[in-house]
Amino acid sequence: MPYTLIKGQFHLYYRSQRLVGSRPDGDSMWFKPDKKNTLAKLGGRRVEFNGGGCAQLRFEGIDALELHYKGSNHQRAPECVDARNRLLQSVGFTSVTYAPSSKVATAVRTASPHPIEGYILSRSVDPFGRPVAFVFAGTTSERDGAKDIWLTPERVAQSLNGRLMAEGQAYPAYYSGLPSNLRNQLTTLANSARNHGLGIWREDVSLSGARVVRASDLEQYAMWPKLYRRLFAYFADGNSGISGFGAWLRGDSSRDDELWIISRGELGNMHDIVSATDVEIQLVVHPEDVIIVPR
């Protein structure tokens, strides 16, 4: 299935009556299309634009550590910040300052140069109004709005998505609909980064296990962000300890994601890939072995 090419600029803030700073992380940032209508007509869902005319992108196929989840909650801070910084550097921002914060500074105050040209290849919009995209810095001679771009594995490796995966700055996060050849390219990049101990893989505990008894414990760890988000919701529901996590997942289909487990060749759910004891939680398959079926 072909992708639509949309040209524009990456923005980290805009000015109205006041300066409004974005909060980029390792897999998301603002993108302002040259032609708003081209992005607005992208998919079956409505794209959400902010007051500066920017849409929040969601990078296809990757999931970086949570830097500011539901407020100021985050995963292991050094790796979260590294992923965010590496993304901005890869786009071409050489100097970025942030508003002071009692925890991790996330709100952009200034950036240079700003804005920066780029483009995306996309064909869908997520339920939050974010274009799901392969993202590229720089320019291309291809036509803005072209709907017939067949994305190759080689081009995926050149995208910011692929570069972040290759540098160990993000986990695989595959949703149904991502072509298998593109998924396999991202998996190759992830495996290489893991084998070389790059980025998050130096600290990753997704399969080795994390000792967690309360929500605050989650800040110590680098783990698959989808698991982190489910654990955060589990504790937010008033649970303590971790042994009940599997039952909690099974209790509501909206949190027990439907998955295709590639190595098993079978359909399952989130609870099928998680093992929990009284104090320890871990995945039993690698993130790249899972294809998430959207609700």
Topology:
Elements: E1 4-11, E2 13-15, E3 19-21, E4 30-33, H1 36-40, E5 55-56, E6 58-59, E7 62-63, H2 77-91, E8 95-98, E9 108-112, E10 116-125, E11 131-137, H3 153-158, H4 160-166, E12 171-172, E13 174-175, H5 180-195, E14 210-211, H6 225-236, H7 245-250, E15 258-261, E16 266-269, E17 274-276, E18 280-283, E19 290-293
Parallel strand pairs: 6-11, 13-19
Antiparallel strand pairs: 1-4, 1-10, 2-3, 4-5, 7-12, 8-9, 10-11, 14-18, 15-16, 15-19, 17-18
Helix pairs in contact: 4-5
What does this protein look like?
- The chain has 295 residues and is an alpha+beta fold.
- It is built from seven helices and 19 strands.
- The chain has two domains: 149 residues, OB fold (Dihydrolipoamide Acetyltransferase, E2P); 90 residues, no CATH class.
- The strands form six sheets. It has a six-stranded mixed beta sheet. Strands 13-19-15-16 form a four-stranded mixed beta sheet, with no helix packed on it.
- The longest helix has 16 residues.
- The two termini are 21 Å apart.
- The mean pLDDT is 96.
Keywords:
single chain, about 300 residues, alpha+beta, OB fold (Dihydrolipoamide Acetyltransferase, E2P), 6-stranded mixed sheet, 4-stranded mixed sheet, 19 strands, about 25% helix, about 25% strand
Strand content: 25-35%
Encode the helix/strand succession as letters: EEEEHEEEHEEEEHHEEHEHHEEEEE
Characterize the overall form: globular
Terminal CA distance reads 21 Å
**Any idea of the CATH class of the largest domain?**
Mainly Beta
> Taking strands numbered 1, 2, ... along the chain, how are they ordered across the largest sheet?
5-4-1-10-11-6
Number of helices: 7
Round the mean pLDDT to the nearest integer and report it.
96
CATH architecture tag of the largest domain: Beta Barrel
Overall number of domains? 2
Radius of gyration: 19 Å
